[in-house]
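anyone seen this seq b4? input:
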Amino acid sequence: MALDEYLYGKIANFFKKRKRAELEASNHAVKLDEIKQRLTIFARAVTGEPIDIYHAEREGGYKNNNFFLPVIYTELETYEQNLSFYLFRVLYLSVQKNLNINWHEGQEHPIGQSRAEALKASRKIKKVLFKEFPITEKIHQELHLHYKAKATEKIPVDYTYLYGKWMRNVKEENQKDKLKNFNDKAKKAIKEEIKTILKANPVEEIITIEVDKKQQEDYVMTHNFEKIDTAEEHEGGWRDFDGEDELDKHSKALEELNMKYTVRVDDTVHSVYQADFVENITVSESAEINTENYCIPYDEWDYSKRAYKEAFCKLYPKKIKENNVAYYKKTMRDNASTLLGLRKMLTNLNNKYQQQRRQPQGEEFDIDALTDLYSDVHSGHTPSENIYLSKRKKEKDVSILMLLDISLSSDGYAANNRVIDVEKQVSILFGEILNEFHVDFSIDCFYSKTRNYATYLTLKEFDDDWNKAKYKIGAVEPEGYTRIGTALRHSGTLLDKRNTKNKWVVLISDGKPNDYDKYEGKYGINDVKQALRELNERNINSYALAIEANAKYYLPQMFGVNHYEILTTPVELLQSLTKLYEKIKFQS
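predicted toks r here
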């Protein structure tokens, strides 16, 4: 790069960063990220749907169960006024969604026409909005006057930030294509470390395209030298996916890159350009995988048809062979005091006496049993002699299956703790205690790569020797996706084989079902709910522990109240498991 180009690039980037910093530093600016959680809960309460909120490229709109809103808003003079803009937009989009006003499958939607249609439909939407939510009329009037005052002879009035634009809704049942970008790499763990992660610009629509191997082989590099920093968008050509980590080098060029076109492949990468968007209903169906490995077919629940897809998923049970003795020893060394405290708590719990009713002997009379005895005597029936209360230790008649989600999302961080490490450390520490108290337990984990390749990895079977199994936990690494329903069904199958009365599946996950094929949003959530109903019908209890703040949007829908907790550290997780163990012990 020539000296003048270098200097120009530095100056341009300086002014761009300063302008962005001034905008964000404004004391009346409202950033979507700061209020996103509250808005999401609010939108779900108003619509009754599992709404997700994402950054908009500009004015935004809604698509299926996704609301797109501006990244930051600073138009009005005070923070409260700018906050009211987001309140108005969420309620407006909620009413628009309930009225089903949007582009639909097969309709063309050029951006200019999308904004014009949104403006045209605003009168109908506002009529319902002001009636259902009277407060929005005052907010709308203030915003309307503001944008009208901004207009000049050269710049016409622009209401697009008030009414957004129309976006395209897509029906799930219309997705019939097969994913072809799939190879045998899906069966192997990703060993290469991801070194660089950058956040992408907002993106509202994803178009997934197939790899053209022929064009990739014939690729000749071309450049358009209109910018100092360039990054090519897809224009029909193909180049090889080398997986090299050059993301940081191209970060400035990527600031202006449109991420509309994507391709799904299994090639290893060393960097991630992360766009906060889930297009959960335009993902194609997966193609069949040819494999001779032993697999177990499982049904999957289709909530839209209220019926099972029989033998829809293939689950491959495996046992891990690798050991990581160093990880186990480090975990025990770093958490010695935590383990000691946990041991004391559970020792007290196990030595705790519980009152047993209707016993043949004891310290006190059981009033209920005496009442029954009196009734039996006066009615001429032979009474039971079990009329005493007795305090004694209750025998453990319980099986606990700890199910760890080791999908790639577990490679992230929560409260500065790597999620997969929290899961592994807790499994080791809790396993130590359960083994000491001779509790029947198993530790398993799962990941998936479409419905055709769900992997269920056993770290410790119920009858395995803990002193051998404990070294395997440290060898687990994140891979694949999160098809929770299939893993829960297999866990139920394993628990069915235990002779204990009290059976539990304890799921440790980020709580969000997703997969490489169509297993996200409402479809995935309802499949998990159905899998939990199946467990409940077989008297298998379930509980979820999440290590991710966004799980609050998903776990309540699947597990219900009092059947989950959201935690971020090993200590919190262990304390929660201790409370859960108390609940399990005295329920048995």
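The chain has four domains: 3-169, 174-287, 318-350+395-587, 354-392. Residues 3-25 form the longest helix (23 residues). kinda curious what u guys think
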